[in-house]
From TrEMBL:
Residues 1-325 are annotated as: A. It comes from Acetobacter fallax. Homodimer. This is Chaperone protein HtpG. Keywords: ATP-binding, Chaperone, Cytoplasm, Nucleotide-binding, Stress response. Belongs to the heat shock protein 90 family. The gene is htpG.
Length: 553
């Protein structure tokens, strides 16, 4: 190789490179994300430089091209970005961890295995991921504003060479000599799949060359990074359909940019209908996490599971691109984003709850999920209980008309209708609203004009146990023991009961039922029915007991 200057990586760097290549990423395909990210960064950089230097102007059709060549076993990623001068090639690619090789090496050596990827992220060595799939990498680059081009070549082991080269315009080509066991990265469909997964929303066009034709590989618009005024409702709705696979329009769209201690853009949706397979999916929130437009993961649990119906994207500047799974679990950055995003969604729900009819649509789709939050999220329990809507014994149970909004109540409205001496919010749980509405358990309450909430969803057997009280009023199941009914007068006419008869009836029933029941008592609960099952005062609610039995406990 005449004219090629040979440079050694220092012994230290050589060893580090080996470490990076073998312990950097769990998935090899990520090399492509790193190289495409670098190409996009370089294109951004050139656009920025062109603002003050016309000689570096970006071509109108600037893009990132991926060109697999199966016969030659070469994969080339080309861009129209800033390019690199000879010095930049040496310092950017020849010096691993430009911020200080020695410091990096020390830290990498002493770091626990789970912290290593994080360190590597901090030091910026994404380029070297190319050596996971290539046994030789060639970089030909021409700095924007210059006529000279240079070729940098290395096998990623001990050395690299630099020599003059030719390139007819500014930009960079990275050519990978694909390893024997990495054939898949020469397949256009595979490359397409990787881009879709990891880099779909890179803001520059990415194309893949197949049969001499360039086909677009990415969706291209990082919609969420644009301001509201730049977007039309159609664009937003298209994006909503793209990520949710729904065909309707969102019930709510949250689009904002957080600035300050933590910076991120978010575009989130509350679907207008319950997705087809919603119940079957996992309980984890699937909000997509991006770092500088690049997709990172959709299982960072950016929202609590009781908001798992929310879908969309959060894109931050405050994490490194190659953030590891371990880091995702421990970084305070993510904890802060979670808190901010959760608060924002909750505020949206609160503000939208003032439109009762519209809110009810939401509640019918996802109320059961929100109620899980009353059960499991102590921090938001009271707020969520305040948002919740319930069927009630004094309201028609099967109303489907426009008046439907009126047949639901909030806890606050319930409290406003309570009897003067009433201390508790009464509820009845069961499998089915209609059965509940006709339950004999309600007779005594109805007769006294006391309202009872009718809770018919599975989750309703759990959350009242945790909420215990709302606005100073305790929640009480009507099936739990004697329900304080003596203190309230019966309204209107009732059947005459004869207390004396009970003295004969109760011992007879006890005889007949034996250990099937723990006690038999006279009750104020019933008006027209003869008997009713009750749970002991401090025992489990009846519906809860039934569910426990069903699940074999
Ligand atoms: P990072 O991107 O985190 O800085 P990388 O190892 O991915 O670390 O890249 C190292 C450096 O090499 C980049 O910061 C950039 O200066 C330079 N570089 C890499 N790829 C390109 C490219 N396609 N065009 C211009 N410069 C590049
Ligand atoms: Mg990079």
């Amino acid at each position: 190789q005449t004219g090629a200057e040979q440079h050694e990586f220092s012994a230290e760097v050589g060893r580090l490179l080996d470490l990076v290549v073998h312990s950097l990423y769990s998935e090899r395909e990520i090399f492509l994300r790193e190289l495409v990210a670098n190409a996009a960064d370089a294109t951004d950089k050139r656009r920025f430089e062109a603002l003050t230097d016309g000689a570096r102007a970006l071509p109108d059709d600037a893009k990132i091209r991926i060109n697999p060549d199966k016969d030659a076993r070469l994969l080339t990623i080309s861009d129209d970005g800033s390019g690199m001068s000879r010095e930049e090639l040496v310092s950017n690619l020849g010096t691993i961890a430009r911020s200080g090789t020695r410091a990096f090496g020390k830290e990498l050596e002493s770091a626990r295995p789970e912290d290593k990827p994080n360190l590597i992220g901090q030091f910026g060595v994404g380029f070297y991921a190319a050596f996971m799939v290539a046994d030789r990498v060639e970089v030909v680059s021409r700095r924007a504003g210059s006529d000279d081009a240079w070729r940098w070549t290395s096998d990623g082991k001990g050395a690299y060479t630099i020599e003059p080269a030719a390139r007819d315009k500014a930009g960079t080509d990275i050519t990978l000599h694909i390893k024997d066991d990495a054939d898949e990265f020469l397949e256009p469909w595979k490359l397409q799949e990787i881009i879709r997964k990891w880099a779909d929303h890179i803001s520059w066009p990415v194309t893949i060359l197949k049969d001499d034709a360039e086909s677009p590989a990415n969706e291209g618009t990082a919609l969420w990074r644009k301001s509201k005024s730049e977007l039309t409702e159609d664009q937003i709705n298209d994006f909503y359909r793209h990520i949710t696979h729904n065909f309707d329009t969102p019930w709510a769209t949250l689009h904002w940019r957080a600035e300050g201690t933590i910076e991120f853009s978010a575009l989130l949706f509350i679907p207008g209908s319950r997705p087809f397979e919603f119940g079957e999916q996992s309980r984890e929130s699937k909000i997509r996490l991006h770092v500088r437009r690049m997709f990172i993961t959709d299982d960072a649990m950016l929202l609590p599971s009781w908001l798992r119906f929310v879908q969309g994207v959060v894109d931050t500047e405050d994490l490194p691109l190659n953030v590891s799974r371990e880091m995702l679990q421990s970084t305070p950055v993510l904890a802060r984003i979670r808190k901010a995003v959760t608060g924002r969604v909750l505020n949206e729900l609160k503000s939208k709850s003032s439109d009762a009819e519209s809110f009810l649509k939401f509640w019918e789709n996802f109320g059961s999920v929100v109620k899980e939050g009353i059960w499991e999220d102590a921090e938001h329990r009271t707020e969520l209980a305040g948002l919740a809507r319930f069927r009630s014994s004094v309201l028609p149970a099967d109303e489907k008309s426009e008046e439907a909004a009126k047949s639901w109540t909030t806890l606050a409205d319930y409290i406003s209708r309570m009897k003067p001496d009433q201390e508790a919010i009464y509820y009845l749980t069961g499998d089915n609203e209609e059965v509940l509405a006709n339950s004999p358990q309600l007779e005594g309450f109805r007769a006294r004009g006391i309202e009872v909430l009718l809770l018919s969803e599975p989750v309703d057997s759990f959350w009242p146990d945790r909420l215990t009280s709302f606005d100073g009023k305790t929640l009480k199941s009507v099936t739990q023991g004697h329900a304080d009914l003596e203190t309230f007068p019966v309204e209107g006419e009732t059947a005459e009961g004869d207390a004396a008869d009970l003295d004969i009836l109760i011992p007879a029933l006890k005889d007949a039922l034996g250990s099937e029941v723990s006690d038999i008592r006279g009750t104020d609960r019933l008006v027209s029915s003869a008997v009713v099952l009750a749970a002991p005062e401090h025992g489990m609610d009846l519906q809860m007991a039934k569910l426990m039995r069903r699940s074999g406990q």
